[in-house]
Amino acid sequence: MALGGALAVAFPALLAFHREADVLARLAAVHTYGQPRVGDATFAGYLSSSTAAAPASVSSVRVVYRYDIVPRVPFDAPPVADYRHGGTCVYYDGWYAGRTLAAGEDAPNKNYFDPKYVVSMYGNAWGDLFKGMFLWAKEGKDYREGAVSIVFRAAGLLFPGLASHSPRDYVNAVRLGRIAPKQA
Questions:
Q1: CATH code, residues 1-111+164-180
Q2: Interval 72-87: pLDDT, tens
Q3: Is-contact 165 70, C-beta < 8 A?
Q4: Which residues of 100-139 are buried (b: 16+ CB within 10 A; e: fewer)?
Q5: What whole-number distance in Å separates Cα of residue 60 and Cα of residue 32?
């Protein structure tokens, strides 16, 4: 999920750099799930401008589930590290309510180590653990999680952003999620 998302974002930029307009014209959008930051503000700008100038504009959408640590690395801490996301962010909270963030806006707790989010992160880790054990009772047997998945969620009690990187949550977000309209 993480490496694939990073490569998926880099691919259209490389196509634009090498002037592969015929290939770019066949791309409608790049959707990534749990994608890490790939470049700096210059790269994000290049990606937006080069894919928008493609014969058929290529949109870039990244999906972030709750406090997933991967979309928050590498850390954005100028002047030491100046990493940025490009494209549009769709952020899902723990109950699969999504919202499309404004252009350039990052998911909450953008660098993961913000003290004001500690209580919320641990509370959400507990919520994810209980949801993993009982979601099937509400949504059906397709949502029953196995022992390995529950243990992985329990690891989130020690490292709260780890369990949120589960592919299961990203799949559930797409299946059960609702996306609120973008606020103007």
A1: 3.40.50.1820
A2: 999 887 778 888 888 8
A3: yes
A4: bbeeeebbbbeebeeeebeebbeebbebbbebbeebeeee
A5: 8
Short-list 134, 61, 69, 58, CA closest to 95: 134
Q: Is the distance from CB of 23 to CB of 60 less than 8 angstroms?
A: no
Strand partners, 33: 63
pTM exceeds cut of 0.85:
yes
Q: How far apart are CA 56 and CA 37, in angstroms?
A: 25
Q: Is the peptide bond before 79 cis (omega within 30 degrees of 0)?
A: yes
Domain borders along the chain are 1-111+164-180
Q: Give me the count of residues in the chain.
A: 184
Structure tokens at 168: 């299961």
Q: At what angle do helices 41-52 and 2-17 cross, to 10 degrees?
A: 60
Q: What is the pLDDT of residues 103-131, one digit of tens each?
A: 778 888 888 888 999 999 999 999 999 99
Residue 2: its H or E element: helix 2-17
* Cα distance between residue 131 and residue 14, in whole Å: 40
Provide CB contacts within 8 A for 179, sequence distance 6+: 90, 98, 99, 100
